[in-house]
Structures are given as C-alpha cells and as structure tokens.
C-alpha cells in the first residue's frame, strides 16, 4: 500500500478562520478521503501557526497571555474542521514542545553547516504579514500593500543565496513540482533576481528560543515563518528514530494559497536542500475566493461567513460549491446567487432527484426491496468508464474536472431512468431499478470525498451500510438484491 502525505499551510491564529482557510482544508480533506478510498496509506496534516508579535500584541490587548490567546484561537480552527467534516490525521500546533525541539534542532544543524550565520537586519518589516522585505521590494509590503516599518536589529540569516542555483536546477528538472502551471512563471521570476539571505530570527518574546547551545541575544527568537514551515517536518516526527518520518517523507502534495508562493516555492525547498532532504512531489497554489470581484475584507463588508452557509444550505453543499464552482488554481467569486443556482441544478434537481425517483419506484413497485440484477447494459458501461477518469482528475488535483465527470454519471442515470420508464406497468422495471441502485451506490463512494454526509445518507437509504466503503467497493454489481430501501427526506430540498 503506497503512502500519500499531504499538508495544508498551518493557519495563523491572529484572526477567525475564513472561507479561504475552509477552501484549502476542504480540498485537502477531499484528496485525503479519495486516496484512502483507493487504498493508499494517507497522512493528512494541518494545524495552527501560533507565534509572533501579532499574537503577542493581540493577547496584550485582550489582557491574556499569548499562550491563552493561541489556545483560544487554535480551538476555533479545530472546532470548525469538526463542523465541516474535515478529518486530518494530525492537527499540529507550533506551541507543542516536540515541534519546538525540531525547530531548534534544525536551527542548530543549519548553523553548524554555515547555512545560518549572525548579522544585523536593516530594512523594512511588515508586522501585519510578519514578513521581512528584501531590499528590492522597497517599503510597501508586496503581500498586503501596507506601508511597513524600518527596523534594525541583530539577527541570524539563513543563507538562501547559496540555494538559488540548486533550486533553479531542481525546478528545471522537475517542473511538475510547481502546480498549477501558471504558478511557474511567478516562481521563475523570483528565481531570476538574486536571492538575498533571509532573516530567520526576530526580536520578539513570543517565539521559539534559539537553541541553548548557541550563545545568543536572549531577546531573539526564531522567526515565525521559519518556525511555521518546519511543521511539515515535525508533523511527521522528523528526528525521532521510531516516528513516522521514514515511511512518510517527502510530501506527495502540499496545498497553499497563491499569496504565500515565495515562502513555499523558494525558502521551503532551500531549507530542505540545506538539510539534505528530498523535496515534495508537488506544491499546489490555489486561487482566492473574491466577493463581488474584490478581496473579502471586514471594511468592505463582503466577508463570507462559512458557518452561516453551512447552517443554511448544509456542510456538503458548501464543500461541493467550493470545489465545483471554479478550477482549483483560479480565483472564484463567492456569491449567494451562484451558490443557490448550483445547489438547485446539480444537487437538488440532478443528484437528489435521481435518488428520490428510483428509491420511490423500488418502494412502490418492489415492496421496498432492491430487485434482482439483470444486464448492467449501457449504464454500467458509463459508470465503469467514469471510475478511472475520476481517479485521474483527483490525482491531478482537478476537483472541478472530478465533479464534472461525476455529474456526467448522474445525468446519464437520469436519462436512463427517463428512457427506460420503469414506472410503466408494461416495462420490466426490476433490472432497470437494480442498475440505478448500483449506480447510486458507486456514486455514494465516489462523492464521499466531497460530500461525506450525503454519501452516508445515500448508502443508508439503500440499506447498504454494511457494504465495503473502500476500493473493494469500486466494482459493478455489489448491491445485494433484497436490500431494504428506506423512505427519507429529499437529500437536497429545492430552494425557492
Ligand atoms: Zn504585509
């Protein structure tokens, strides 16, 4: 069984989780569930990034300690993931002692190799983004556009310049590591200018102390980004003899938002090269959700509150919309009208109606028992042809294409139902309804990564709770004749 290690960025606990966090994490959860279904040994890591002056300041304003602040805010993310049916294998927090040990150990190791050295940082710093600016960036933050502050402080530098050529050579040999393709241009632009060495400490009390072995300024702590990137190592027990590191490394895919490309495609690979570790197979930078064509912000009043949508329309409808509406690398516009349209057409009319129609016919014409199988015919062919395509789309991190393929199966099943008209007394309804039940069973497996609750509802409606919900279930003809088909509320009540 081959392993599949995937990560999301860990989220900074200075604010409430928003739709962007939900997007990345739902996407990761869908991949984790799909590859688990395919029999891979999946390890899905996410978590929270908890150090830095922003947290320190927010805690001071709230009159609590930074640790209490981090506890409180980190919990918001964990609670939201439970509500969204997101099931990571590990939720890491950068305040965990084991993570801190890994960060200090890496710091010491890189110092010993001359990849970390003392100096003085003179330049601009964006406190909002916790980002050092390079000299060519001027004083405006390239990420948030804010005016930044000039600081001068003793620091340790990471010798990024040493890895400019090795990274360029690596990407030339492995362009597929940078996903989607359109991110490659931005990465190559970054690599076409000289990469200066970067600060990897800050004068900030709320951070991981430098290793005790290094006689350092006691006010310096390890820079929050350096600390955060290393969670991908500590999250799989890097440095522990009997930990999972050996069988898990390197990551098969790491998801990120396109605003943190420099950290993930430049600094992160450089750190790994410095440590002599294999690089991830793929890094995928996805797009942003805009609202009315603009970035969401409190001041514009156009922020989408994820829980509100989940409460109104259901968690599955939200997960579905996020992954079905736009290709994963592109920006999308999150608006309620588009959401309701997609809900009604794809979920209420197509999928929900399909299940409702044939289940009703099985109840009225076959005493609520799945009839005997006959010839699977063209519907079986259609479904079986879709299975490898679905796997291909998921392997390409193409949720949009995956769901498009799934919809062709739903549409084919609805047409089949219309054409075979099993409600007419003169038609032999048994084999037709069997084929529809079997199609729904396979759909419930394939849609589980995106809509876990709906998948469970379809299976229980068909009395199939006991059938394998793993790769053994991805064959035609497993629905047993005689399974009891239950009455149930519509999966997706139509919106007026
Ligand atoms: Zn900024």
TrEMBL record:
Listed GO CC annotations: cytoplasm
Chain residues that bind Zn(2+): 126, 129, 141, 144
Cofactor note: Binds 1 zinc ion per subunit.
InterPro entries for the chain: Anticodon_Met, Met-tRNA_synth, Met-tRNA_synth_2, Methionyl/Leucyl_tRNA_Synth, MetRS_core, Rossmann-like_a/b/a_fold, tRNAsynth_Ia_anticodon-bd
Domain of life, per lineage: Bacteria
EC number(s) per entry: 6.1.1.10
Pfam families linked: tRNA-synt_1g
Motif, 'KMSKS' region: chain positions: 295-299
Binding partners and assembly: Monomer.
Family the UniProt entry places it in: Belongs to the class-I aminoacyl-tRNA synthetase family. MetG type 2A subfamily.
Function (record text): Is required not only for elongation of protein synthesis but also for the initiation of all mRNA translation through initiator tRNA(fMet) aminoacylation.
Protein name: Methionine--tRNA ligase
Organism per entry: candidate division TA06 bacterium ADurb.Bin417
Gene expressing this chain: metG
